[in-house]
Amino acid sequence: MAVMTFPDRQTVLDFLRENPSATTKQEIARGLKLKGKERATLREILKEMEADGTLERTGKRAWAQADRPPPTGVVEFTHLDDDGELIGKSVGDNGLFGPEIRYAGPSGKPKAKAPAVGDRALCKISERDGEWLARAITVFEKRLSDKLVGLYSQTTRGGKVVPSSRKEKREFVIQEADRNGAEEGDLVIAEPKPVGRRQYGPAYGIVTEVIGHITDPRSASLLAIHAHDIPTEFPEAALEQARDPHPAAAEREDLTAVQLITIDPHDARDHDDAVWAEELKDGWRVIVAIADVAAYVTEGSALDKEALKRGNSTYFPDRVVPMLPFELSADECSLREGELRRCMAVEMVFDKSGTKRSHRFIRGMMKSAAKLSYEEAQAAIDGKPGGKAGELLDSVLKPLWGAYAALSKARDKRSPLDLDLPERRIVFDENGEIQGIIAKERLEAHRLIEEFMIQANVAAAESLEKANSPLVYRVHDVPTDAKIAAFAEFLQTIDIKWHIGERPQTHKFNKLLEDIRGGVYDEMVTQMVLRSQAQAIYSEENLGHFGLNLAKYAHFTSPIRRYADLIVHRALIRALKLGPDGLSDQSAARLEEIAEHITTTERRSMAAEREATDRYLAIFLADRVGAEFEGRIMGVTGAGLFVALAGSGADGFVPISSISDDYWMLDQAAMEIYARGSGKTYSMGQTVRVRLKEVTPLQGGLLLEMLSEPQPAPKGRAEARKAADAGGRSPRGRGGPPRRGKPKFNKKTLPKHKRRSRK
Fold first, then answer.
1. CATH number corresponding to 72-139
2. pLDDT of residue 439
3. Where does the S1 motif domain lie (predicted)?
4. Model confidence at 728, in pLDDT bands (50, 70, 90)?
5. Which of 89-98, 492-501, 617-626 has the highest mean pLDDT?
6. What is the β-pairing status of strands 148-155 and 131-139?
7. CATH number assigned to the domain covering 625-755
8. What is the pTM of this model?
9. CB–CB of 308/299 below 8 Å?
C-alpha cells in the first residue's frame, strides 16, 4: 500500500488554479495550512513541477502556471498582430512563457508611458472572454535583452564570445556542444545558457546564430544591425504587395505641365520630393511635391505593418536598411525623370519678404522635368551650367533661387538655432573597403531644399490643426532650467554672462555663437550649446519646435523613410477629403502609442548608425597605431578626455591616469580637468596633439596618448583653485567637512606609479 503524503502534486496544482494570486512558496504553504515537514515536501513538489514544465519560475521563490500568466508580472511585448495590437508574453526565469497577452492600456495614470515592441513592463494581467489582457503599471526604462552580439574565438576549453559593444561587460564561455558551427573569427549572436538560479564562476552561453566574419568589410554595420534588432528581411506578403502595387483610387489634379524637378545626392536611389517656383507680381509661388506613399501603403496592409515596425529607414555608411522595400521606394514611389507619378503636393504663396500668405494641398499626377544632383544645380547657378541643369537654368533653377532668397529673409528674421556642425562621409570602393573620409560640403542648394521642406512641413501642421485633425507633431522642447543653469555656470568660467531668469530664445544663442565665432572658445561654446538642447521627439501633443523657432511643426516630406510622415499624409487625406485612404479612427486613437514607438525606433537607428560609423573609423585607423594626430577635446570626465581627431573626426579616449604624474581634478562646471597645485588645465574645445596607442575595431574604440602640455589656468582661477584645494573644498565651492581617518583616493585619477604606495 502506497504511503500518502500531504501535500501532493494535484493538491498544489488545484490550489494554484483556484488561487492564481498566490505565487510564492510562503503564500502557497499558508493557503494549504502546511507546517514543518509538509513545507519541505511542498518545496520538492514545486521543484519537480518546475523541472517538468508545469510551473514557470518568476522570482526567487515565486512560480506561475506555465499555461497561464500570473495576475501581476513582467510582460515582454514582442510584436504587433494583424490588427496592429501590441502583443507580449509573461517573463520567467527561463524566458517567455504562457499564452499571448494583448496590451490594454495603462493601469492608473492615463498619460503614463506606453510600451513599444521590445519593451518590458510590470503589468496587471487578467482574462476576459478567453483573451489575456495586460495593463502596464510601469514600463522599464531600459530594454532588457539577454542576448550578446560579439566575436567568437576558440580557447583551450572550448570557446568564448567577446561583446561588440563597449557598454556590454559580459563575456560568454561557449562549450563545444553549444557553438553550433561557430568558428574562430565569426560574428555571432549568443544567449545565456540556462543553468538554474544559482550560478558560480563564468557565464555560459549558447551560440544561436552566425551573422558574418570579422574580416568581412561590411561587418561593422552587421554588428550594429543585430545588436539593435533592426529588421532587415521583409515578410513575403509585404514584398508581394510592393512588387504588384495597387494604389488607392482618388481624384487627382494634373500637375504634368509644371516643371517640377528633383534635387538629391548624386548617388540617391529614390527621389521622393520635387520642387518648382515662379515669380508673381508681389512674391513667389512654390510647389513642393512628395511621392504619394499613402496610396500604395494602405493602413493595415502587410507593408503598413512592416513600415510601422521599422519606424524609419536606417542609414549606415555602407548601406541602407529601408522602411519600405526598394521594389516600391525606388520604383512607383520614386519621382523619376519623365515618368508619370502620383504625388501629394502643397502649393504655397509667399510675399517678397518670404512670409507665407496662403497654401493648399493637392493630390496630383506629376512628371519630373529633371533629376539633378545638388552639385549640378549649384554649378548651374554659379555660372557653370551643363546638361539638364543648363537647359532649365532660366525657366526652373533661377526662379527656385529667387524664391529661396525671399524665404531666407523670413528665416533670418525667425532666427532658428544656427549650429554649423561639420559632417563627414566614409567613402568605400567596389569591394566594400574604406578608401577615405571626406568632409560633406554644405551648398546653398542643400539649404534651398531644406527650407522648402520646412515650409511644407509647417503647412501640413497648420492645415491639420485648422481642421481639428489628430496628428503626430515633430517637437523640440525648450531647454530645461537645469540645463540652462549648467550652461550659464559654464559660461561664467570663461567670463561670459548669461541671464538664466529669462525664457531661452534661439536668437540669443545665435548672438552668442556669432560673438565667439573664430575665437579660442568657438568649438567649446558650440558644443555646450548643443548639449544644452533637448532631443527632438514625435508627439501627439504640440510643444512647438524650439530649434527651428516654430510654433507648430510636423514631418510631411519623407514618407518613404519615416512612418511619421505617412501618418501625416493619411491625416491630410482624411481632413481635406482627398481620398478614401485617410487616417482611420483606430489609428487616430493610437497616435500617442505610435509617436512613442517611432521615437524609439529613431533613437535605435541613431545609436546603430553611430556604432557602425565608430567601427568603420577604427578599421580605417587600425594600421596607424603609433601615428600622431591633431585633435580637439570634445568631452571631459573624471576618467579622462574624449578627443576628436582632425580629418577623420574619429573619437578617441585619453585615460586621466596616463596624462602625467599630476593629481588631476574635474571641474564639471568649466568642463575642464586641472592639475592640483599648478592649476594647469585641459578643457573642452582645446586643440591638442595625441598619439594613437591602441585600436579595437570590434568595439570601435581608440585609445590615445596625450602629447600636448596643459594650458595655464585662466587668470584668477588658479588662485581660487589653490585656495579651494588647501581648504579641502571642490573648485566650485561645494566642499564638505574634513574626512576623518585615512583619506580615500580614486585609483583612476592617480598616476600608475603612485597606486601601489597607497595601502
1. 2.40.50
2. 85
3. 626-707
4. low
5. 617-626
6. unpaired
7. 2.40.50.140
8. 0.78
9. no
Instruction: Give residue 661's pLDDT band: very low, low, confident or very high (50, 70, 90).
Output: confident
* One-character DSSP codes across 489-512: HHHHHTT----SSSPP-HHHHHHH
For 641-653, how does the pLDDT look when each residue is reduced to its tens digit (9 = 90+)?
999 999 888 999 9
Strands (E), 129-200: 131-139, 148-155, 158-163, 172-174, 186-192
**pLDDT at residue number 224:** 93
Give the per-residue pLDDT at 260. Answer: 98
**Alpha carbon of residue 84 to chain centroid:** 23
pLDDT score of 288 more than 60:
yes
Query: Number of helices (H) and strands (E), helices first, in the chain?
Result: 20, 33
Q: What is the DSSP letter of 332?
A: I
Grid cell locating 684? 573642452
Single out the residue of 182, 202, 204, 209 nearest to residue 194, CA to CA. Answer: 204
Least Cα distance to 343 among 252, 416, 266 occurs for 252
Cis peptide before 416 (omega within 30 of 0): no
Residue 749's pLDDT is: 46
Tell me the sheet residues that pair with 151: 162, 187
* Residue 755, pLDDT score: 47
Q: Count Cβ atoms below 10 Å from residue 253 Cβ, excluding itself.
A: 13
Q: What are phi and psi of 192, to 5 degrees?
A: -60, 140
554: three-class secondary structure by DSSP: coil
Judge contact between 673 and 636, C-beta under 8 A: yes
Q: How many CB atoms lie within 10 A of CB 127?
A: 14
Residue 14: predicted pLDDT? 83
DSSP for 367-431 reads EBSEEEEHHHHHHHHTT---HHHHHTIIIIIHHHHHHHHHHHHHHHHH---------EEEEE-TT
| Residues 94, 100, 103, 108, CA torsion sign | negative
Residue 146: pLDDT over 80: no
Handedness of CA 378, 380, 383, 385 (dihedral sign): positive
CA separation (Å) from 704 to 636, 699, 707?
A: 14, 15, 9
**How confident is the model at residue 752, as a pLDDT?**
47
How distant, in Å, are the alpha carbons of 143, 423, 617, 620 from that of 650?
Answer: 28, 12, 6, 10
Q: Check residues 129 and 356 and name the one with the higher pLDDT.
A: 356
Contact predicate 99/87, CB 8 Å: no
* Phi–psi pair at 404, nearest 5 degrees: -65, -35
DSSP element (H, E) containing 181: none
Q: Are the CB atoms for 649 and 438 separated by under 8 Å? A: no
Q: How far apart are the first and last CA of the chain?
A: 70
Q: Which range, 117-121, 460-464, 632-636, is most confident?
A: 460-464
Non-local (6+) Cβ contacts of 536 within 8 A are: 474, 475, 476, 545, 547
Alpha carbon of residue 745 to chain centroid: 37
Cell of 650: 574619429
- CA–CA separation, 731 and 575 (whole Å): 59
Domain boundaries, the chain: 9-63, 72-139, 148-215, 236-473+542-608, 478-533, 625-755
**What digits encode the pLDDT tens for the residues 7-40?**
888 888 888 877 776 667 778 888 888 887 788 8
Q: Do the domains 625-755 and 72-139 match in fold?
A: yes
* Residues contacting 355, CB < 8 A, separation 6+: 410
